[in-house]
Amino acid sequence: MKILIFPKTYFICLTFYFYSAFADNEDVFNKAGPVIFANILYRHGARTPAEPYPNDPYKNESIYWPIGWGQLTNLGKLQHYKLGQWFRNRYEHLLPEGKYSPSLIYIQSTDMDRTIMSALSNLAGLFPPDNAEEWFNKIPWQPIPVHTTPEKLDKVLAMKYPCPKFEAEYRALLKSKEIMEFNKRHQELYDYVAKHTGLVVDGPVQLEYLYSTLLIEAMNNYTLPNWTEKVFPDKLREVSAFSFGLYTYNKHLQRLKNGPLLKDMIQHMDEKINGKLDPNRNLWVYSAHDTTVANMLNTLGVFDPHPPPFTATVLLELRKNINDEYSVTVLYKNSTENEPVLLTVPGCTAACPLDKFKALLQDVIPVDWDSECHSHQLFDLTSDQPYNSLAIFEETEILENPWPKYFYWTKKYSRTKNI
């Protein structure tokens, strides 16, 4: 084990950096005014592996993962409970008396156990019952609704509703020169991993899943095989980080994959200002996945490629200053322990005027997502203009797994599954 010793000057500089950043943020917030509405998007908490790799020494579910594959762990529940407490503190002014009311907050989740359970754990920290709300003195908890849509009908959060155009665009991207060159540069890594795991590795997405599995096994104090020392965590993290940018690699993919969610958030803010948000809520919460978080950050142009950790949170806060001017601040909180980082959308200021925010992102907001998804006109991935001959597909061809070569578990578990 390596023990890192840092000089005192390191901590002095680090402390000064965070103090300066905090001071700068406070200046931005003071000028922009208080938060009057917030869109909250977070990843679920710590979970068990989604599925083992073929040669995984810990693939015996009943022995090593008795709660099942892809399930929220006790750590994950605690992580979200703490995050809920943080929300309660940050948005105290938006929650009169700290009590739950359906007119104040709406919570929606993808239709998966771990995201629903994360939302419920989060709400336990956000809204602990007071005396009037307590219904059984031995359980300091109150039931709060979390709304879901079946995955394959979800056109906003899970985004599993079939979109042939996205699927065709994505397949074209995977065959593009840039991605092929990336694969070529990492072929030695692919071969090494394939040899030791039993996986068929043809691209970065497969290593994204492997990185996640190994990370979870390490978090649970399981000794990783010796072969992993050469590639985990650094090399696998690098490729995994690249993989998280693929779904929203360009504006066309951003428009089809994340556009509906961003459109939903902007609509909430517009309705809040215009008095048309009914009920007139102050918080809108989305419980989702690492891919959802990465897609949102990338669409906003603020994604520093990385695998979003458990409970990673994106905040789109609507603010109003003393001059009745509205702006949006984008923050990213990548840990329950750390304060969020204030991000700046390219072409704007940290507190971005709402009208400018919408104008800058107009290209990635679909007008009619259903129509665009079934359009036969595809895009040239190297330009901003439509291009008809990039790929040809039938409108009726819905691809259950549009990345067949990238997976070992093409039928049981594919990239169409969120993690």
UniProtKB/TrEMBL annotation:
The enzyme's E.C. designation: 3.1.3.2
Entry annotated with the keyword Hydrolase: yes
Alphabetized GO MF terms: acid phosphatase activity
Signal peptide limits: 1-23
Enzyme class: hydrolase
Keyword flag Signal: yes
Record's keyword terms, sorted: Disulfide bond, Glycoprotein, Hydrolase, Signal
Reactions listed under catalytic activity: a phosphate monoester + H2O = an alcohol + phosphate
Family: Belongs to the histidine acid phosphatase family.
UniProt name for this protein: acid phosphatase
